[in-house]
Amino acid sequence: MRRKKLLAGNWKMFKTVGDALALVRKLKISVGQVRDREVAVCPPFTSLKSVSEILSDTQIRLGAQNMHYEKEGAFTGEISPDMLADLGVVYVILGHSERRHVFGEPDDLIAKKVQSAFPRDLKPILCVGETLDQRQADQTRSVVLGQMEAGVRLLSADQAKFLTVAYEPVWAIGTGHTATPRQAQEVHEVIRGFLQKRFGPVSEEIRILYGGSVKPENIDELMAERDIDGALVGGASLTAESFSRIVRHNGGGA
Ligand code: PEP
Q1: Ligand 1 pocket: which of 233, 238, 239, 242 to mutate (most atoms <8 Å of CB)?
Q2: I want to staple 230 with a disulfide (CB 3.0 to 4.6 A). Which of 6, 188, 221, 252 is the partner?
Q3: What is the CATH classification number for the domain harbouring 15?
């Protein structure tokens, strides 16, 4: 099955509202009407509303970087699925390695967040990936499979259709050390096999993105791999020039 590629920019904790608007106005011109692949930007919460307004007449989708699993309540500092949906958010990144490792988010919390996206028609981007120590100890497969198993624990096959997975080796995030296309493909194949077993034919619709120091210079070779269906891009999504080049890559067609 031919899956439409998704190129998603994770802006992390960068950009004031003014900076975000300046970036998204440029992206609107350069990639706002791209249709043969999907484009998404995930600004900080503070810019979602303003960015949403600029994107309303484009093909670029809006994403958020995290959320709580409850609809509302006494959860100081948190943002709910309803609040994101209300702003026109389509995608939500969940279980990013910075959430797991810097903020200590455990697998069962991530599973609840993933599940809570569906009632509001949000599409979760579930991030998984091993640390350098785990890779060196030959634990990549078991770590990634463990995170996958836990992350989709509550999902039905019908819901899984709207899931995106991002394989992001922790040692490659923000370090400039990209996984080789072969290293990435090996893990994507493991994830694809897991999804097939868990969800059956629906798994063919689930995109598996690669993330970790993706740049205009390496996007083509990564996207040429069979099981790489797009990219989650951090640093290189912060300028319109580099993110647009990534969106317009040639590797492996649309
Ligand atoms: C990320 O934040 O998800 C990421 C992959 O970052 P970078 O592209 O900067 O490695």
Answers
A1: 233
A2: 6
A3: 3.20.20.70
